[in-house]
UniProtKB/TrEMBL annotation:
<protein>
    <recommendedName>
        <fullName>Peptidoglycan binding-like domain-containing protein</fullName>
    </recommendedName>
</protein>
<dbReference type="Pfam" id="PF01471">
    <property type="entry name" value="PG_binding_1"/>
</dbReference>
<dbReference type="InterPro" id="IPR002477">
    <property type="entry name" value="Peptidoglycan-bd-like"/>
</dbReference>
<dbReference type="InterPro" id="IPR036366">
    <property type="entry name" value="PGBDSf"/>
</dbReference>
<feature type="signal peptide">
    <location>
        <begin position="1"/>
        <end position="28"/>
    </location>
</feature>
<feature type="domain" description="Peptidoglycan binding-like">
    <location>
        <begin position="144"/>
        <end position="195"/>
    </location>
</feature>
<keyword id="KW-0732">Signal</keyword>
<dbReference type="InterPro" id="IPR036365">
    <property type="entry name" value="PGBD-like_sf"/>
</dbReference>
Length: 202
């Protein structure tokens, strides 16, 4: 992911721009605006960024982040899954984008900011997983999430098919056109960067 462009796409309004500049909204659990942070979430973002190039260390952080996302799935209203795409890669990548610009921020705070950024993409109810393939690579995605992305690309006059939640060569081509237009990696796959730019970015 390209750091500066994704940061602008994640936080397009002034009230949220502070996340990219080194601060994040505070969510408090007690009267004194504080709560205990457990496990890897209590470490600084710099430790997480350092772990990105070390597979074993990164796996530990990734597991913590998946637990964090699961807790939000359980606690947020009208939420089956806060992550519309493959969570094992995409959610940690969004957290990494935030951490790279906020090295002293707690990992938990960065993860909370990531949840806030992608909340508009959340899936409200369960739907089947479908496999989308392009150029020898594949991802699994909830059908309803794919339908939302197709509808967004139709609205942007990029995809001329129907929003059925079914992959097709025409949809893959439309994704590539949109990705080129947005100057992001052209994969033909519905990754989190593409979702953010198609649905969240205005």
């Amino acid at each position: 992911m390209r750091l500066n462009s994704l940061c602008r796409a994640l936080f397009p309004i002034a009230a949220s721009a502070s996340i990219c500049l080194g601060t994040a909204p505070v969510h408090a659990a007690d009267a004194g605006n504080g709560f205990a942070v457990r496990g890897l979430g209590s470490q600084a973002c710099s430790a997480y960024v350092s772990a990105l190039s070390k597979p074993d260390e990164f796996a530990r952080y990734g597991n913590w982040l998946m637990g964090y996302a699961t807790a939000h799935n359980r606690l947020l209203p009208d939420t089956y899954d806060i992550i519309p795409t493959e969570p094992g890669v995409d959610f940690p990548n969004v957290v990494a984008v935030i951490c790279r610009t906020n090295s002293q921020m707690l990992l938990e705070t960065a993860a909370s900011s990531a949840v806030t950024a992608i909340k508009p993409l959340r899936q409200a109810a369960s739907s089947p997983l479908v496999v989308v393939s392009a150029d020898g690579k594949s991802v699994s995605i909830h059908q309803e999430s794919l339908k939302r992305l197709q509808a967004a690309l139709i609205a942007k006059q990029v995809f001329k098919g129907a929003a059925t939640g079914t992959p097709s060569p025409q949809f893959t081509d439309a994704l590539k056109v949109f990705q080129r237009r947005e100057a992001i990696p052209v994969t033909g796959l519905p990754d989190i960067d593409t979702f953010i730019r198609a649905i969240v970015k205005h």
